[in-house]
Each structure stands twice: as structure tokens, then as C-alpha cells.
Inverse folding.
């Protein structure tokens, strides 16, 4: 029995030798995150994280050769100091024409299953293809980008180290970008330290947190804002798509454009509130310039429609109210809590910064 | 009056459109994967239960037992729910992305008298906008967090450890 085992092993080794196809493995990239984030992470089997792949992905994230005019990189609209947003309602790519939707913050994407405001991409690899190729974003086919990178001095070696290949292809470009994006973990805000018992919020932030986590129940005189119903948990979001009452008849139909289902009209991703103080303007169309505007919306301006989120119906501090009806002080307290979600270690982490600087 | 009538008509048309445009997919560890339309579900045996929603007030919910749907798909219930099948679960998914889980044993009438239904009516009316056309109703639970609305998928899986 033992002898036969050895024979099989020797046979396999011989086969590997003859075919010359020794499977390539880079150095595994260790992911570190709090246990409370859970392990429902998304890494496709064909693209495990390696140190070499993540490093290449970081360079490509900031590489302007990936755009048709060699002036735009992913990092142009996803700036680390703004938690990987650009401070604009809509971004402009190579042609100066604004995008359709607000550039999203990139944090804790490792746990996200469906990307974009409408969830239409089911992996980061697939997601990356849109901004790379969209005519008014970076406007260049991956095959052309691959050609440019092949002619550079630096990249052939980096791709060899990351993927063991002597050629560079579009598929490897998006794989490396996805690997880097999966490492963008934000878990170092004062709120994280509070959850860990290491930080004491001031009284305004504590009042705000109480409102954030509580559903309003006017009949029992319980005041709340119920934000945590969708933006709760240590990651500060649940992967949901809701119509949050911005318009009765939305100009952008959101998820309905993908599904054709009327219930999806005006539905967009419930985004993470991590680093929310850094990622203005807010909503899929950047219509709100400040957190005060956002609180004002939920407090007093929910617009009814057939696809309005059931969570935002009958969700008021006044019996029969259609919006939350929070006092100005309550809104200020909630904003004081939202400030605790800013992770300064995330926006200054050298591992995420532009290697060309 | 005319305005009211038109509104009623529009609302009816809208509800009908949502009801018919959405199907429930029954998939995973099943013998017969199903795509159930509202009409298909309408033909199944009805069950009515009274339970309190988040408002704390009791409501009459009418629909079909979840087990009737699973039986039609050939899921291992009843005499077959033993051995390795005890590590199977039902994951119910909503159109908004929400998901909730039931073990097969907590649904099966061989294990429990509690009947969990897929409801299409509350107090004799279709479910309201946003919660329909189908919603899971779990009687006897203190929180309605598993009363998942806008059900689109019922997936039976093996828990893998």
C-alpha cells in the first residue's frame, strides 16, 4: 500500500516535470480584520491574494497609462485622503463629460458581493472593467492597456512576479486591481475602538449613537432615527438596495434599469457609513453637500412612491409622520456620532498610497 | 371621484404588474427546481394564520405553507428529514438583498406544529407596496426579523463546515 502511494507520487512528479507546468504560487497576502466583521468574504478561487499581486494592483490603481490620454488613473476619482472618493457629485474622465453617478468610497470591499450603486457587477474583477473602458472614464480597452504595460520597463517583471506569466493580459490587470482593492480594509475608527472598549465618546456622540441605533416608537415615547437598521453592525452597512425617498419619480431609475422590476425603481445600494464625514457629496447623484443636508432629508423630506423602502414608511417620531421628524439638536448629535466613523489610519496607510509620489 | 377611480385603477394595475413580473425561484438541494408565478402559488392549498407584526397588533395573513412549496420541489422533508439531511437549511432571499435562514427541521410538520407561510394577503388585502407580492410570516417569534418581504428566491443548501 505504502509502496503504491510512492509510485503515484513519483508518477505525478514526473508528469509535472514533463509538462513543465509547475503551478505558480506567490507569497500569500495575510488579511487582517476584526473577528466582528465576519468571514463572509469574497475572493474568487482563480485570484487568491498574493503580496506580489497586491503590490502590482496598487501600482496599477495609480497607473495613468491605463487611460486613453495617459492622464487618469483609478486614484484620480478614488483619492485615499477622501476615503477613495473625489469630493465631486459626478467625476470627469478623459473626455471631460461627467459620469452618471457619484464615485463610491472604496473600503471593506472584501465583504461586498455586488458592486456599483445598482449592484450590477458580481466581482471586483468584473467591476474594474467598467471604469477602465467607459468612454468618459478611462476609455481604454484592457488589451490596449496590456500593450502599453508590455512596452514599459517595469511592468513585465511585476506581472511575472504576481502571476508567473511572461505575457501581460487584460485579465491579469483586473485581477491585480481586484487584489489590491480587497486589501482596503478600514477598521481603525474611534467607533471601532469604542466597540473594542478602548474609546469613550463624548455625550453628544453617545446621544447620537443611541438615536442611530433606535427605531422611533412615538406611542411608547421612544425617540430614534433607526439608521442602524440598514447601516448597522461593525461594518456599518448591510448589503441592501433600497429607495430612500429622494424623489417620487426618480430621474435615475437605479436598480430597475438592470432588473426591469418596478419594485426596483429608485433603488440604490445602502452604502457603508465608514468615513462618511470624508465622502461628501452624498447619495448616488451627490445631491447633498453636507451631512446636515442628509439628516434634513431623512428628518423632513422623505418622498413617497410605490417603491419607497418599507423601512422608511411609518418611520417617524411623530404618530402618523412620513419622515423621522428629528429636532435640530438630535440631528447634530447624530452627526457627532458619524464623526466617530472616520478612520484616519485608513486614509494615511502607506500601503494604500500612491507609489508614484 | 374620477381622480380616485383612476388612482385605484392605476394602483391595481401596478400591483398586478409587480405580482406578475416577479417569480419565486426554488433552487439548490431540490429534485425539481421551480420558478413559481403568483398564479402557480394561487393554485396551492391555502393556510391562514394570525400573528403580530412590528406594530404589535395581530393581523390575519393568508398564503401557502412553505413546506408545500418545498415538497413540490422535492426537498427532503418528513420521513426523509434525518441523517445528513439534518444539516440542510433554507435560505430565503428578498428583492432588496436581505436574506434569512431556516433549518429544514424548524419548518417540517414532522418536527413542529408551527406553520410558516409564504403570505400574499394581509387582512384580506394584497400585501402593501414594498412588502409584496410575497412575504414569509413566522408565527410565535418575538421579533419579525425573519418575516422577509418581497421574496424572490428560496434556496435549499447543505451547511458545509
Amino acid at each position: 500500500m505504502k509502496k503504491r502511494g510512492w509510485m503515484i507520487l513519483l508518477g505525478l512528479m514526473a508528469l509535472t516535470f514533463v509538462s513543465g507546468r509547475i503551478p505558480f504560487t506567490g507569497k500569500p497576502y495575510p488579511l487582517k480584520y476584526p473577528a466582528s466583521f465576519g468571514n463572509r468574504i469574497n475572493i474568487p478561487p482563480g485570484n487568491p491574494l498574493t503580496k506580489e499581486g497586491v503590490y502590482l494592483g496598487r501600482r496599477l490603481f495609480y497607473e495613468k497609462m491605463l487611460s486613453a490620454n495617459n492622464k487618469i488613473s483609478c486614484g484620480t476619482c478614488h483619492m485615499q485622503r477622501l476615503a477613495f472618493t473625489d469630493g465631486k457629485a459626478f467625476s470627469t474622465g478623459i473626455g471631460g463629460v461627467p459620469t452618471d453617478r457619484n464615485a463610491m468610497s472604496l473600503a471593506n470591499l472584501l465583504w461586498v458581493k455586488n458592486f456599483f450603486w445598482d449592484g450590477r457587477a458580481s466581482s471586483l474583477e468584473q467591476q474594474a472593467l467598467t471604469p477602465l473602458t467607459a468612454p468618459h472614464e478611462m476609455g481604454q480597452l484592457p488589451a490596449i492597456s496590456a500593450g502599453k504595460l508590455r512596452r514599459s520597463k517595469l511592468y513585465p517583471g511585476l506581472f511575472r512576479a504576481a502571476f508567473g506569466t511572461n505575457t501581460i493580459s487584460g485579465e491579469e490587470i483586473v485581477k491585480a486591481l481586484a487584489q489590491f482593492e480587497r486589501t482596503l480594509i478600514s477598521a481603525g475608527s474611534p467607533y471601532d475602538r469604542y466597540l473594542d472598549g478602548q474609546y469613550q465618546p463624548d455625550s453628544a456622540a453617545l446621544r447620537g449613537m443611541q438615536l442611530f441605533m433606535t427605531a422611533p416608537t412615538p406611542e411608547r415615547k421612544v425617540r430614534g432615527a433607526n439608521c442602524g437598521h440598514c447601516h448597522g453592525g461593525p461594518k456599518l452597512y448591510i448589503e441592501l438596495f433600497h429607495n430612500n425617498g429622494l424623489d417620487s419619480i426618480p430621474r435615475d431609475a437605479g436598480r430597475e434599469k438592470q432588473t426591469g422590476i418596478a419594485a426596483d425603481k429608485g433603488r440604490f445600494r445602502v452604502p457603508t457609513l465608514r468615513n462618511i464625514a470624508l465622502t461628501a457629496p452624498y447619495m448616488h447623484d451627490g445631491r447633498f453637500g453636507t451631512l446636515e443636508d442628509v439628516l434634513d432629508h431623512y428628518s423632513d423630506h422623505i418622498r413617497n412612491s410605490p417603491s419607497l423602502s418599507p423601512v422608511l414608511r411609518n418611520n417617524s417620531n411623530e404618530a402618523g409622520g412620513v419622515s423621522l421628524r428629528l429636532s435640530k439638536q438630535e440631528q447634530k448629535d447624530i452627526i457627532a456620532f458619524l464623526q466617530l466613523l472616520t478612520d484616519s489610519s485608513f486614509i494615511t496607510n502607506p500601503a494604500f498610497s500612491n507609489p508614484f509620489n | 371621484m374620477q381622480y380616485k377611480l383612476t388612482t385605484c385603477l392605476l394602483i391595481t394595475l401596478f400591483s398586478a404588474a409587480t405580482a406578475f413580473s416577479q417569480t419565486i425561484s426554488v433552487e439548490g438541494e431540490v429534485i425539481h427546481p421551480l420558478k413559481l408565478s403568483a398564479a402557480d402559488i394561487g393554485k396551492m392549498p391555502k393556510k391562514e394564520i394570525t400573528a403580530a407584526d412590528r406594530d404589535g397588533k395581530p393581523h390575519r395573513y393568508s398564503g401557502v405553507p412553505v413546506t408545500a412549496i418545498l415538497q413540490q420541489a422535492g426537498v427532503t422533508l418528513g420521513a426523509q428529514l434525518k441523517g445528513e439531511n439534518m444539516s440542510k437549511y433554507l435560505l430565503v432571499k428578498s428583492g432588496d438583498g436581505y436574506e434569512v435562514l431556516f433549518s429544514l427541521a424548524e419548518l417540517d410538520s414532522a418536527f413542529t406544529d408551527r406553520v410558516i407561510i409564504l403570505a400574499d394577503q394581509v387582512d384580506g388585502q394584497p400585501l402593501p407596496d414594498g412588502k409584496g407580492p410575497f412575504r414569509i410570516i413566522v408565527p410565535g417569534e418575538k421579533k419579525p426579523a425573519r418575516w422577509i418581504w418581497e421574496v424572490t428566491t428560496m434556496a435549499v443548501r447543505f451547511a458545509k463546515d
Q: What stands out?
A: Chain B is about 20% helix and 35% strand. The first helix of chain B runs from residue 2 to 21. Chain B touches chain A at residues 14, 17-18, 21-22, 95-98, 128-131, 149-150 (CB under 8 Å). Confidence is low (pLDDT under 50) at residues 1-20 of chain B.
